[in-house]
Specification:
The protein is of the alpha+beta class and 973 residues long. It has 11 helices and 51 strands. The chain has an 8-stranded parallel barrel with strand order 23-24-25-26-27-28-29-35, surrounded by 5 helices. The radius of gyration is 29 Å and the shape is globular. Bound molecules: beta-D-galactopyranose. The site of beta-D-galactopyranose has 15 residues, from loops.
Length: 973
């Protein structure tokens, strides 16, 4: 990923940070001065009257002094900050413009303006809850009978269309130019004030019932509709002559941009990052007004897409000669422990009116674990000179050898070491641009018989699929929330992520690079045929090339990315040669952009003898490895039924690596245990078989999967019997909003290993027992609070990284059991419930390995709060995730407690959202009141920007002892 030199993960540039720090300094100085004056006042503790009168005198004197000094400091810092901009010696600025937006959404689509990208087909039928693997259907043709803005938007993608003849020519005219919202003088003061990243739908309310406008599939949240974002831009006079770009990391969806009343361009697909060139539209030194229109259709996805400017937005300012967008490409064709060849290609744009003699010089620095650059360069590419015509571009390239490279590799056996390439461009000896590229030196082998080899070491892919929403925070990207997800996954032993089914926020790949996850980066869930009436198929003809190319161009330097997937379960699996032709075209775009990584696609239907798999470099199978719907119940149905496919694919494509891009799709509700317990290793979900359609919950005995899926253990067995398979990407890591299979009256999925609030389900420990074999662990399920089951059979199951375990109930051994071949859990299925203590001792190779016990608890008595971090940054972005437990008087979590809890906060922080991980809970996420779900609740606290101090969260519930927790919000970075 490419970033300017001053970027950091929080989405702010150094420039702005420096400004912020100065501003904070002046504010803090004022505050301290005030305090000093107060403290030096000997009479301040006198009687109230005295206090007040003396206070008044000294306050006015103190205030005056502090004000004068404060104003002086503030003015000096402001002038300093301004003078930095005024002299503008920056070679390149990449400035966050996340703050200070105004937002307006029409109350309904009928009331919206007519500035549409294109017409959309009417939705005649939409089955919200149809099976995820239903066969996609033909696109519906629609003719526009009104003016549409598409012809003005298409040219934004031109840089990503290879054939110059196919690039779009902008028509004359300025549609929307007279619309009030795009005018500089439009009064937007009654529009909502918001900061980005912003997801307009996440605050809800949830839409309930069968007739909801947005159904369960898309998360029952108001994603659909037309909305506007407006903001002034700071373009000082000194920016005259500079190139000014608007960089949007993601906008959901159909974004159209106007600057100073002029239509600039836009990008329909919500998941890609994109840029428009504002240079011809801005007025340096003048008022500059940006207006962005989004039009997010209903029926556009099989999951919650989010809505709005939901990722970071930047202004990038460069000199006319500059490194192009995503303009560096670094590869490491030869890697060993002692040396590595590093190749670099730099694309330089000359947007000036005269030709330029450009010198490009790139140095490589090592980055430490904190992202700090080594003091000196470890290597430098030879200087390359080029003459670049006015308005033209050129590619310069070079190659060098790094001795004893610190290799990038996945944890835990390797270290994700990173390097930074710093490219300087000079024109006539004067530096004009400095551009940084983070990359890793690593070799990856995609071996058809062994799987993945990273730097020569076999690494089994222990992966999960992740959707882009961050639970109760919605799709609004937040670095800490994403990092927390990765930390929880890493603790489970997960080493790989498939970005299902869309490119993530750039900062997420920065995290996977730094934390050492292996990534399948994926772009499409549909091509020409449709899964939902308004999905990507509508724009496929115009945008498949720009979208496919920009996806690779943005992420190609990320060390963590190991595979490009350009399709998930697409309808073109069914259309033989025609489908393969579409696939070939897309694959070639990807290959042309990055020939160093193989392509893949996720196939749930295509068989080895069909044309589509032959197009892919790596065979990606969804559920086919274990077999699909082999249960007799599905005989004679028209659903996909497939016998296990690992071997047939391996035999047909002996030269291709095979990976399970989606496995399992097992479902469960955290802490809900349903009886009877299935005797099977893997079972479907029906009432009485792991399902409860009345309460819409799925049993957490962790044996049940959606109709086409398999339990975790069935997948383990299939993988262990086919050791050539590179590993699996479980569907899925965290629950996500939308797609609540099998109960579409709910709001969020059941298939996560971890619930929507981030609390591990029992399955987490099953994966941990397999993926972290060296971690001594053992886990018991279910909980042991079953007053209604005394004397009834209540099976006890155990997950352990050991090979044997002995179970005790109230001190009595219930026997010692050993895992057999292809057994991954130990089960005591005939335990009769008696309250008390269940204890398990696990063994490995005959030695005691781990121990756990579960006790019957008392009544709910107290609340307990624990923050994942007690110190956070006062930057307006940082978060603390607080787990609130309902406990008995001894502090044990009451596993079936659902007490209603009310939260409040004091100090410089706010409650952004609460959740409890219950897929059926339709209380809006920002609510400060929520029922616990099986003993747990989550509160997400965000620090206020620029105000340090103690944030106090209090949790109260009728009849329970309150609790409170303190979180320090700090200026430290
Ligand atoms: C798969 C699909 C995923 C998700 C999953 C749910 O078929 O690729 O996107 O829908 O099923 O179980």
């Amino acid at each position: 990923m490419i970033r300017s030199c001053f970027d950091n993960l929080d989405g702010r540039s150094m420039n702005r940070d420096a400004g912020l720090r100065l501003e904070l300094l002046s504010r803090r100085s004022l505050f301290h001065l005030f305090l000093n004056i107060m403290q030096s006042n000997p009479r301040k503790k006198d009687s109230m009257n005295n206090y007040q009168s003396n206070e008044n005198t000294s306050f006015s004197r103190g205030t005056l002094i502090s004000l004068i000094i404060g104003i002086f400091i503030f003015t000096a810092s402001y002038c300093f900050a301004q003078s930095k901009t005024a002299t503008n010696t920056q070679l390149r600025e990449h400035v966050s413009i996340n703050d200070g937006w105004r937002f307006y959404k029409y109350s309904s689509a009928d009331k919206a303006d007519n500035l549409i990208y294109d017409v959309r087909p009417a939705v005649t039928e939409n089955n919200d809850s149809k099976d995820a693997d239903s066969k996609p259907t033909e696109a519906v043709k629609t003719e526009a009978t009104q003016q549409v803005l598409k012809p003005w938007i298409l040219p934004t993608g031109n840089a990503f269309i290879k054939d110059l003849a196919k690039r779009h020519v902008r028509p004359a005219g300025n549609p929307g130019g007279d619309f009030p919202f795009v005018q500089s003088n439009f009064d937007d003061s009654d529009w909502e004030r918001i900061n980005l990243p912003h997801d307009w739908a996440i605050k809800g309310p949830f839409q309930k019932g069968d007739k909801a406008e947005v159904g369960g599939g898309m998360g029952r949240l108001p994603v659909n509709g037309v909305a506007w974002y407006r903001r002034k831009l700071d373009i000082p006079k000194s920016d005259a002559g500079k190139s000014v770009f608007l960089d949007i990391d993601g906008s959901m969806s159909y974004a159209i941009v106007w600057c100073n009343g002029k239509l600039v361009g836009g990008w329909p697909y919500g998941y890609n990052s994109w840029r428009v060139d504002l240079t011809p539209y801005v007025l340096p030194g003048g008022v500059n007004q940006l207006a962005i229109r989004l039009d997010n259709p209903n029926y556009s996805a099989r999951w919650y897409p989010g809505a709005g400017l939901y990722r970071n937005v930047w202004l990038t300012k460069t000199n006319p000669v500059h490194v192009a967008q995503y303009g560096t490409y670094i590869t490491t064709p030869q890697v060993s422990k002692s040396s590595a060849t590093v190749k670099l290609e730099v694309t330089v744009d000359n947007s000036s009116k005269k030709s330029a003699d450009v010198e490009a010089f790139t140095q490589i620095y090592a980055l430490d674990a904190n992202g700090n650059k080594s003091a000196t360069a470890v290597a430098a590419f030879p200087i390359v000179k080029r003459q670049i015509a006015a308005g033209g571009d050129a590619k310069v390239s070079g190659s060098l050898v790094v001795k004893n490279p610190k290799l990038w590799g996945s944890r835990p056996t390797q270290t994700p070491n990173l390097y930074l390439a710093v490219t300087t461009l000079r024109v006539n000896g004067k530096a004009v641009d400095k551009y940084e590229t983070r990359f890793g030196i690593r070799s990856i082998e995609y071996n058809p018989d062994k799987g993945l080899l990273v730097n020569g070491e076999h690494i089994l892919l222990k992966g999960v699929n992740q959707h882009h929403d961050l639970g109760a925070l919605g799709s609004a990207f937040n670095v800490r929330a994403a990092q927390r997800q990765l930390e929880i996954l890493r603790e489970m032993g997960c080493n790989a992520i498939r970005m299902s089914h869309n490119p993530p926020a750039p900062e997420l790949l920065e995290l996977t690079d730094k934390m050492g996850f292996l990534v399948i980066d994926e772009i499409f869930d549909s091509w020409e045929t449709k899964k939902t009436p308004h999905d990507f198929h509508l724009i496929f003809p115009d945008w498949s090339e720009p979208d496919a190319r920009t996806f690779v161009r943005r992420d190609k330097n990320c060390a963590s990315v190991i595979l490009w997937s350009f399709g998930n379960e697409v309808g073109e699996q069914y259309t033989a040669e025609a489908g393969a032709k579409v696939a070939t075209r897309l694959r070639d775009f990807v290959r042309e952009e990055d020939p160093t990584r193989p392509t893949t696609g996720a196939m749930n239907y295509a068989k080895p003898d069909m044309p589509l798999p032959a197009v892919l470099d790596v065979i990606g199978l969804n559920y086919q490895g274990e077999g699909i719907r082999q249960d007799p119940e599905f005989e004679g149905t028209d659903r996909i039924r497939t016998a296990p496919q690992y071997t047939p694919f391996h035999e047909k494509f002996p030269e291709k690596m095979v990976v399970s891009t989606e496995s399992a799709s097992a479902a469960s509700s955290r802490g809900v245990y349903l009886f009877p317990v299935s005797p099977k290793v893997s079972d479907i979900i029906r009432d009485g078989r792991g399902g409860d359609s009345k309460n819409c919950q799925v049993s957490a005995y962790e044996q049940h999967a959606v109709d086409f899926g398999s339990s975790a253990e069935k997948v383990f067995e299939a993988q262990d019997k086919h050791l050539f398979v590179a590993g699996e990407f479980v569907w899925n890591g965290f629950d996500y909003i939308g797609e609540p299979t099998p109960y579409y009256s709910a709001r969020s999925s059941y298939t996560g290993i971890i619930d929507l609030a981030g609390f591990p389900k029992d399955r987490y420990y099953l994966y941990q027992s397999r993926w972290r074999k060296d971690l001594p662990m053992v886990h018991i399920l279910p909980h042991w609070n079953w007053p209604e089951r005394v004397g009834e059979v209540t099976p006890v199951h155990v997950f352990t990284s050991g090979d044997e375990a002995e179970l005790f109930l109230n001190g009595q051994s219930l026997g010692r059991k050993k895992k057999g071949q292809y057994e991954y859990r130990l089960r005591w299925d005939d335990v009769k419930y008696q309250p008390g203590e269940l204890k398990v001792i696990a063994y490995k190779n005959g030695q005691k390995w781990a121990e756990e016990s579960v006790k019957t608890t008392g009544e709910s008595a107290k609340l307990d709060c624990k923050a994942d971090r007690n110190r956070i940054k006062a930057d307006g972005y940082d978060l603390s995730f607080v787990t609130v437990r309902v406990t008995d008087k001894n502090g044990l979590t009451v596993p079936r407690a659902n007490n209603n809890i009310v939260f409040s906060v004091d100090g410089p922080g706010e409650i952004v959202a609460t959740d409890n991980g219950d897929a059926t809970n339709l209380v809006a996420f920002p609510s400060k009141e929520r029922e616990a779900f099986n003993g747990l609740c989550l509160v997400i606290i965000r620090a206020k920007k620029g105000v340090a101090g103690t944030i106090k969260l209090t949790a109260k519930s009728n009849g329970l002892e309150d609790t409170a927790i303190q979180i320090q919000s700090e200026f430290t970075r």
